Amino acid sequence: MKKIKFGTDGWRGIIADDYTFENVRIVSQAVADYINNKNMGAKGIVIGYDNRFLSDRFADNVADVMIQNGIKVYLSDRPLPTPVTAFAVKVHDAAGAVMLTASHNPPEYNGFKFIPDYAGPALPHITAAIEENIARLQNSVRRNTNVYHEQALELAVDHGIPMAQSVPNHVADRIMIDPRYEYFDHLEKLVDMEVIGRANLEVMVDAMHGSGMGYLDVMLRRAGNRVKECRCHRDPLFGGSLPEPTQKSLEGVCRWIKAEGARLGLALDGDADRFGIIDVGGVYITPNQFLPLLYHHLIAVKGLVGPVTRTVATSHMLDRIAQKHGQEVYETPVGFKFIGQNLLEKGCVLGGEESGGLSIKGHIPEKDGILAGLLAAEILAVNEKSLSEIALDVAKEYGGGMYSERLDVRTTPAQKVRIIEKLQRLDPAEIAGVTVAKRITIDGIKLVLESGEWVLVRPSGTEPLFRIYAESENKERIEKIQQAVMNAADIN
Ligand SMILES: O=P(O)(O)OC[C@H]1O[C@H](O)[C@H](O)[C@@H](O)[C@@H]1O
């Protein structure tokens, strides 16, 4: 039996290999134990699921295990985006949520995210506690081969907190929920839908067959915009590609925007926590380009002046904006859980990351592609310029633009170990002819150069590869900087 581990963002597995009904029940039991150990069972748990194959059935199994453990269940009556599941935790003041999704992974995958009561991704100490529970349950299964072949629900209950005795004060229940309308109302407090409506935008919405369909399209249309939908129907095979809103996977949308002369394209990943933004002329706007635009907009237009939090891999253009407004920048390892923590604890007005996640003050500490898309529409509506033109204005205002790029290099497990060792010792005096001013080790190795350029090498927590990120004011230097650090770390 494979060890079940929570990675950068939850447990992911291949359906019918390690992602089975039995293992989902074991993980559910581990979460139920975690909640009951904290005496939070009476608050109940929200259960959401995406559009993937069998996600609704897996959700049903999670619900059974929770109820058997005396935990009240708020089960969604339809597929939900991850941020909506997280938001429902707040609506019901629940002990947390389970979201069944493998996000943007290939169709044969499914996954399991635990969202604690603060409505953001679980921090490492919480997933570690759940993993301990899982290991204990898996060991019991290994010892008892008869049980192993039995119905896993019985097994989950066998190894959990005894049912009836543990729930003296309440009767566990299954309550069906549809949190969409509370969520819409909440977003309308964060985004100016009236301004967006008045701009009468023509927008292409691409849900990439994921559970984000029925959100951006509904809200934009309701505000009075013209919306064209793309991939807004369920397809558990995702039309043969990955539900990931990258430039490559949005080529078709870019072509349409260009051909139609539309002003905006908004895409979501499989569970709608990541965003993809396309500008007039079919120009893809990277998250590293969009986040500074948004930070400037929050400060200058919405009056939300405050610190910002970004991952170690995200554009330092945010730092330039923060500096000009006398604000703090909080840098975190990659993973929205760390960003979410800073949103909660440091009063940041924006938290964002290079891989396409963001949230703002007043919202839940979970990344939300729907909110990101509406904020992009708001920026357009307010400015009556293209996003690319606004980006140029912002760059001018804050002392010049920055270019950033990421290179992904696949490695074998043996190479990976060797490179990680080499990275630990990597401490060059200069990179591509410029002196290294700072060496940051919170996630991989980041070298900040005297010129303000920087390069970061880190192993991905979700894929078998290394990521080499670099940023410079001079586009031509990015490759040179990446190559220099790859040579130094022996990555080829
Ligand atoms: O670079 P990786 O470790 O593969 O992580 C890439 C991304 O994975 C998940 O989507 C996390 O929620 C993100 O926070 C992270 O940026």
Automatic annotation (TrEMBL):
Alpha-D-phosphohexomutase C-terminal domain mapped to chain residues: 428-487
Q: What are the names of the required cofactors?
A: Mg(2+)
Q: Where is the Alpha-D-phosphohexomutase alpha/beta/alpha domain?
A: 4-138, 182-279, 287-398
A Gene Ontology biological process annotation?
Answer: carbohydrate metabolic process
UniProt cross-references to CDD domains, sorted A to Z? PGM_like2 (cd05800)
Enzyme group, top EC level? isomerase
What reaction does this enzyme carry out catalytically?
alpha-D-glucose 1-phosphate = alpha-D-glucose 6-phosphate
UniProt KW keywords: Isomerase, Magnesium, Metal-binding, Phosphoprotein
Q: Which Pfam families match?
A: PGM_PMM_I (PF02878), PGM_PMM_II (PF02879), PGM_PMM_III (PF02880), PGM_PMM_IV (PF00408)
Task: Give the metabolic or biological pathway.
Answer: Glycolipid metabolism; diglucosyl-diacylglycerol biosynthesis; Lipid metabolism
The record's annotation in SUPFAM superfamilies points to: Phosphoglucomutase, C-terminal domain, Phosphoglucomutase, first 3 domains
Report the superkingdom from the record: Bacteria
Enzyme Commission number? 5.4.2.2
Q: Which GO terms describe its molecular function?
A: magnesium ion binding; phosphoglucomutase activity; phosphopentomutase activity
Q: What family, per the record?
A: Belongs to the phosphohexose mutase family.
- The name this protein goes by in its record: Phosphoglucomutase
